[in-house]
């Protein structure tokens, strides 16, 4: 038997599993999935878990059950590309013939002193659980500072306001306006929503240091009873330590067929891959489908043809449970519709995968 080893059961890894197990999988291929948890986690909903508006169970999806799939629960400590094996913490190494690296990302602190030690995170389910415990045990009138005005920061701020309207929420954003890379209509809508809901937006911020319960913006101290960091991501440390070609964001450079330039048995999916789009769940799934196409052709000894360009359908963000914003086919949408669309997509995803 030849082993296909998948590291990480995130959006890309899960999509690859689904497509292979429901498609034409050669009889001599055994799939092994390595993940720290016995379920797939809906990372796009971590902000709601941290805010306390969604239950832990609500953001978990079972992995497929199939005799051709072996699931190993553990933490990857090293990838040995030369000897084709992966080391796990407190476990024996796992050899492979084909490898898919989908280990995801972690927070990027941009060298800000104290940021990693004194802020909360929503990059993993464990970190989101911890953030929930801290945020929902704060006393009335406590100040919560959220660093980073991207999608995660906006959704966390709005959901936390819905969960705890008694809290004083501050959102620090580096840009001159919120969502400065999006159409003006969207940034104006989100800014207006924040004003109406008493969420303080601090534009053109520059976080220079973090101490316990103190955030320094342009070196000026801001008291905070809790600080959440949502100001950027980077590939998993295991990936950053690999001696392969990477881009300026430390993501692995790949061929158009999503494998290493000098090793067509090693693929990278999701946040660790250097792609022409910003990392997202949608991108990881689309890339995962293309990786399955490549693997099936390789196993059949068929010629690899050019893959179509990945086209993303759009971006959706929520402002609590009733309003939202987004871009669909490059058209900005605001209000109730984008929130309903996001809820519908989440419902379909959970029911399809479940």
UniProtKB/TrEMBL annotation:
Keyword Flavoprotein: yes
Superkingdom: Bacteria
Ranges for domain FAD/NAD(P)-binding: 3-287
Entry's Gene Ontology BP terms: aerobic electron transport chain
Keyword terms: FAD, Flavoprotein, Oxidoreductase
Cofactors required: FAD
Cleavable signal peptide: none
Keyword Flavoprotein in annotation: yes
One of the record's GO molecular function terms: NAD(P)H dehydrogenase (quinone) activity
Assigned protein family: Belongs to the NADH dehydrogenase family.
Protein name: NAD(P)/FAD-dependent oxidoreductase
Record organism: Exobacillus caeni
